[in-house]
Amino acid sequence: MATQKFDVVVVGTGPGGYVSAIRCAQLGLSVAAVEDDRPGGVCLNWGCIPTKALLRNAEVVHLFARAEEFGIKVSGFQADYAEAVRRSRRVADRMAKGVEFLFRKNKITLVPGRGVLRSATAVEVTGAAGTTTLEGRAVILATGSEPRSIPGVTIDEKRVISSNGAVRNEGRPASLVIIGAGAVGVEFADVYSAYGTTVTLLEALPRIVPIEDEEVSTQLSRIFARRKIEAKTGVKVQSVTASDKGVRVTTDSGTLDAEQVLMAVGRAAKVKDVGLDNLGIQTEKNFVKVSPMMETSVKGVYAIGDMAGAPLLAHKAMAEGVVAAEAIAGKSPRPVDYTNVPSCTYCRPQIASIGLTEAKAKENGRTVTVGKFPFTASGKAVALGDTDGFVKVVADKSTGEILGVHILGPEATEMIHEFAVGRTLEATLEEIIHTIHAHPTLSEAALEATLGALGQAIHL
Ligand code: NAD
Questions:
Q1: Does the CA dihedral 100-104-105-106 come out positive or negative?
Q2: What is the pTM of this model?
Q3: Which of 125, 149, 372, 383 is within CB 3.0–4.6 Å of 113 for a Cys-Cys bond?
């Protein structure tokens, strides 16, 4: 069995793995990256990127449906869902090829196959070309996560599908029950309903997107209801069985029949079959336990991304990948600041947030001031014809510290970064209001919400 030696062996090439591999290479380390699917991981191939392409299609369909509002007559337009899926596959392929290009540029050796840790310095890789052993001074594990289901329900990717199946299926059900109204649930509700599927969202907790600020959930529910996306909250799913129509979902408040069910109840870290047990690497609640430098309980073995704990977000994985790479290279990187990770959901309108919700800030004993600015009062939003939503700023009443920001609306996922940078620089409300925001922009709503928290909103 051949053995190849490197400074670092990275297992998994999702956003955590490929970024850590590139950062290691930039720092002069030789790197092997092991991948048993395509480079780019779930994010590029089956998650973030293809779903954003599908959501863009949904937005275009929506604009066509509203064309008359803009004085444009479009008679009998047809939206081809299969072509939307094919476009999203082309987008994902292009981005995956981009990762391969970056690997070549940085002289990273891509080793196809499945990697298993055999010791703190050895990863055994089994692939089409046989088995090989990669040795490294350090190993970075970045194996990601996979969709999970609820007890007693098997995801067969036919009647009961996961996000993995949904991004591949060129067909579209006439009716769909989505179990779970987190990010995956609301994004697919948006896509399928834009193309004409009757969508019902079932959420166990009392509101949809339950990790977001309550006002975001309430307003998004109203907007979804207007678009005939039904959301049933506080619902306990008892069983999912095959029926004549496709599937029957039995809940504590009745039964629902649909052609398909999309399971969107969260993801489970891929911590099995990676060889953690061979070394006694510690886990906690099915995630690998790591230090602020992303090192596991075994020296020289690092873990990043979804397998290293919440939040299960690509950008958090990338940040962890940089920390791990720099720590291995002997630098003293700044640990990831888990209190300042933006959360972005790309349904229409988009949701973006950072920091604490109003309720959480109060629960933490903070005396808060809140500023809220609706997009109906934003000139740019009115001009765009996109006025659903608001910006909400939650700050400490006495110091002006920005505790949390919650945006529902057009380009929310772009706008949130003003506050991410602001919080990194420990900006207060005062610094935001003394920063001139261009007119007319959607970002003015961020300025106005901040002014509102100080009782100084101009345009409301
Ligand atoms: P999630 O944890 O965000 O949401 C799952 C939802 O399902 C929760 O609201 C939960 O209360 C609900 N739920 C759980 N069990 C249930 C049951 N038995 N019946 C009804 N509802 C139930 O998970 P997700 O939406 O599947 O996404 C998986 C991961 O991927 C998350 O960490 C998410 O942040 C990430 N993701 C992010 C994005 C994005 O950033 N845009 C998009 C997709 C996924």
A1: positive
A2: 0.97
A3: 125
